[in-house]
Amino acid sequence: MPSITNNLPITLLAQLDDVAIFQTAAFTSDDNNGASAVNLKDYQQTDEKSQASYGSLNLGLHVNDNAKTVLNNRMRLLTVINEQLTAKQCKPIERLHWVNQVHGNHIHDIDKTALSMEPMAADAMVSRQAGLGLAIMTADCVPIVLYQPATRQIAAIHAGWQGLACGVIKATAERFSSAEPIMAWIGVCISQENYEVGREVRDKLLAGCIDNQTLSMQHLESFEERYVLASEADKIKLNLPKLAADQLNSAGIIVSNDSTVPCSYADPHYYSYRRQTNLGQAATGRMALIISRSASIE
Q: Which SS3 state, helix, strand or coil, does residue 35 take?
């Protein structure tokens, strides 16, 4: 459940060395807009249907929210992150990096690109610089951050089913030049129970995993058993966070928290595009999983 940090719904998930991982949400844990479960019938009987649900910390500029509000939210987020870092005896970071996420496998190397007002079209970022943070926005897709202690390189990944199919995790892992261990954290995303899709999605996902060699042969042979639940008629339910964790493991990456990931759909403290669609809402916001790297205060 998201905690209250200076009245913002943001949680410090982990801190190692000078690297910290943060998860944002739509509402704080005691906000009246939150509920213990999603009840579509109750929502459909209220005026909330067809209205946008931007919560208290929408970070997405592409969801028709007021741009001034979103940019202010991003500045508030940076301020609160720096307050947390200072409290942990780390220097503040200077900036947060964002990308225009396109459900592909393009990797944006922060260190090799000049800073621009227009975000790069990419679904992952990597950097070895100190004094910055990498932010990945989601509202059901799987967000992932990576940290390699030996090189102090960090990365952030956006992995929906298309990204998992086209190998965005493997492509990002290959940007780490050292063979030293890499650690991963998976952020809030939709659970298998609430992710129902057609069988054609399963077929494309399996084909992508085979073509891009993102899973072990054992996992490929047990694909249906590990990641798929039969639903109604030609529908199935996919386990994206488990698939992401297995792809990370296949890339030799240590997953720190894959068994403790909250469901974005089931917990209305978080943003969910699928919940927005099922409720008939005009739009919803975006939350972020952030990895920051700063220099320790001597």
A: coil
